[in-house]
Design goal:
Layout lengths: L25 H9 L6 E2 L23 E2 L29 H8 L2 H31 L11 H4 L2 E3 L3 H5 L7 E5 L12 H13 L3 E5 L8 H5 L11 E2 L2 E3 L2 E3 L13 E4 L4 E4 L12 H15 L5 E4 L45 H15 L5 E3 L10 E2 L2 E2 L5 E2 L10 H14 L6 E2 L8 H10 L3 E4 L7 H7 L2 H5 L1 E7 L4 E7 L5 E7 L5 E3 L1 H4 L8 E7 L14 E3 L3 E3 L3 E7 L6
Parallel strand pairs: 1-2, 3-4, 3-17, 4-5, 5-11, 11-12, 15-16, 16-17
Antiparallel strand pairs: 6-10, 7-8, 9-10, 13-14, 18-19, 19-20, 20-25, 21-24, 22-23, 22-25
């Protein structure tokens, strides 16, 4: 038999027959496998086998799958790898409903689901509570505190019982001057004490006006050099001039005489610019004495203190001479013996004054909820009444702006802006004394400017004006002062976010004026319409006399010597 032919008859030759086959090239096998469209491909790397384990390829129709060589494997001819036929693995398609229900009712999975459910809602509730706490605990912009009773105003001054009983119900408080020595027992001033009792019965808030600078109470003891009272007053040796003993320096009192008086008992001069010897407020014991005075009056239900002659409380500790005013010599009547000839920088409004007043203000605040410490006179040097750039007195008096016989629009606008923006007086006490405008026009100005008016005890108060004054724009709003229509109209606006703005226009001239508000006031450049809220008695333009009526802002008429109050809706950027 040819050695290359395979015997398939089933008979066994006595000779040993070895099967053989013609090797099929590896590339041909791969091509045949890939050419079968329905075959599955499987690669198998096998361990080394000997030649006896090799099998012949089956017939084409019996091959269940196509087998190819792994490209990385070696052919069986080399003995490193072999072809294997394996069954295809079926892909995982998930659990059936029956299989899933077995897990659904399993106690472990039930507990796990409940645990996740409860955990989710606990976390959700915790996040909600945390958000609420964050909002609650976050720093907030505190709303501005409401105006105090004396800031709301108006206030008035009274000196007798009849005036006190006739005070208008819209007046928030009265100022009662204490004419006697503030350091003496209260019974020494029966009239003043009776007024305080009457005010207490009527429920009227009282600000008592005291003069802390002078007193005779301890003078004799100090004059005898009693160790306890020796420095209660200001003592100074005289200067020898031409063989005579003269005053220590050139300090003058407002009545053009020397501020020094000589004591024969002590043989020294004592400082006395007024009728009584002046107390030494560089002595802490004297400061405490006035602390006691304040506490005594507050114990009688007095609501606040106003100081008279506060500018004179402190003097120069070196007792240097006063310097002349720069322009004093230009006036023939001003000579060395005249009070106005000097600057008075050594005897008035010294820089340390603010710290002294701050201590007394603290005494008042400790005894009352919000009692004021005020000063009776207008502040000539505002910085002396400040500590760390903050005023230590409440509602400084402003009486000079509306006191001149002629009201200049340009000058008045400048003075108001200077008061608010340069001096930093945020809420003054207005006292109008000019005849340049009717009383009701002055009321419109002083009631609606920042601050409170000081009115006569007998005058009537317009309830409409009071109602406008209570609006947030007046109580808390920004104030801008303007000179309009070629300095013929004084105007100011009051506005605060969330409230209608208030515009006040005053015509102090003798002729009628018409002003274009958005053109004249940059902040109101988009304004088209205003609402009439109030006007003075002599306002006579009938087109704008309809209270509550809406009118154009492009042509607002203002009658001579009159004022009008307009309301407007501010834009978001105002």
């Amino acid at each position: 038999m040819d050695k290359n032919k395979l015997e398939i008859s089933g008979k066994t030759s006595p000779e040993t027959v070895s099967a053989s086959y013609k090797p099929i090239p590896e590339q041909d096998v791969e091509d045949q496998a890939l050419s079968r469209p329905k075959a599955l491909i499987k690669v198998c790397a096998c361990s080394e086998v000997d030649g006896a384990d090799e099998k012949m390829l089956p017939a084409e129709d019996t091959i269940p799958e196509v087998v190819v060589f792994d490209k990385d494997a070696k052919s069986p001819q080399n003995g490193d790898a072999k072809l294997d036929i394996a069954e295809a693995k079926q892909a995982f398609v998930g659990l059936t409903k029956e299989e899933l229900m077995k897990y659904a009712n399993d106690p472990f999975w039930i507990r796990l689901r409940w645990f996740l459910f409860v955990t989710f809602w606990l976390l959700w509730a915790s996040m909600l509570i945390g958000a609420i706490l964050i909002i609650y605990a976050a720093p907030k912009c505190d709303p501005p505190p409401p105006r105090t009773w004396y800031q709301q105003g108006p206030l008035t001054e009274i000196s007798d019982k009849a005036s006190l009983e006739a005070v208008n119900k819209n007046v928030q408080g009265v100022v009662i001057p204490w004419t006697e020595d503030a350091y003496e027992p209260l019974k020494n001033n029966p009239v003043g004490f009776a007024l305080l009792e009457t005010a207490n019965k009527l429920g009227t808030k009282v600000i008592v006006e005291l003069d802390p600078t002078v007193s005779n109470v301890w003078f004799e003891k100090s004059e005898r050099k009693d160790p306890e009272f020796d420095e209660y007053y200001i003592w100074k040796q005289g200067s020898i001039q031409g063989g005579s003993n003269s005053a220590p320096n050139n300090w003058l009192s407002p009545n053009n005489v020397s501020s020094w008086k000589y004591s024969d008992a002590r043989r020294e001069y004592y400082y006395s610019p007024f009728s009584k010897p002046h107390l030494n407020f560089r002595n802490t014991s004297v400061i405490k004495e006035f602390d006691k005075v304040i506490e005594t009056f507050l114990a009688l239900n007095v609501s606040g203190i106003r100081l008279r002659n506060a500018a004179f409380l402190l003097v120069d500790p070196n007792f240097d001479n006063e310097e002349a005013n720069n322009n004093a010599r230009q006036y023939p009547g001003l000579t060395l013996d005249k009070y106005r000839f000097y600057k008075h920088s050594k005897t008035e409004n010294l820089q340390e004054l603010g710290y002294l007043l701050k201590g007394w203000r603290a005494v008042i605040r400790n005894k009352t909820e919000s009692g004021p410490l005020m000063v009776a006179e207008q502040l000539a040097k505002v910085d002396s009444y400040k500590v760390n750039d903050s005023l230590v007195v409440d509602m400084p008096l402003q009486s000079h702006i509306f006191s001149k016989p002629v009201l200049s629009v340009n000058e008045t606008a400048y003075s108001l802006n200077y008061t608010f923006n340069i001096e930093g007086i945020e809420w003054p006490l207005w006292k109008a004394r000019t005849n340049a405008l009717p009383k009701d026009v002055l009321d419109i100005i002083t009631y609606l400017l920042p601050g409170a008016p000081l009115v006569n005890s007998s005058e009537s108060i317009n309830p409409v004006l009071i109602k406008i004054r209570e609006s947030p724009s007046i109580m808390r709003g920004f104030c801008g002062v303007y000179s309009l229509q070629n300095n013929t109209i004084l105007a100011f606006i009051r506005v605060t976010p969330g409230s209608p703005g208030i515009l006040v226009a005053v015509n102090p001239t003798e002729r009628a004026e018409i002003t274009n508000i958005p053109k004249e006031i940059p902040l109101l450049s988009n304004l088209q319409e205003v609402t009439v809220r109030y006007y003075s008695n002599n306002y006579n333009n009938s087109n704008f006399k309809d209270l509550g009526g809406k009118r154009t802002a492009l042509a607002v008429p203002i009658s001579p010597k009159s004022a009008i109050v307009l309301e407007y809706v501010p834009k978001r950027d105002e």
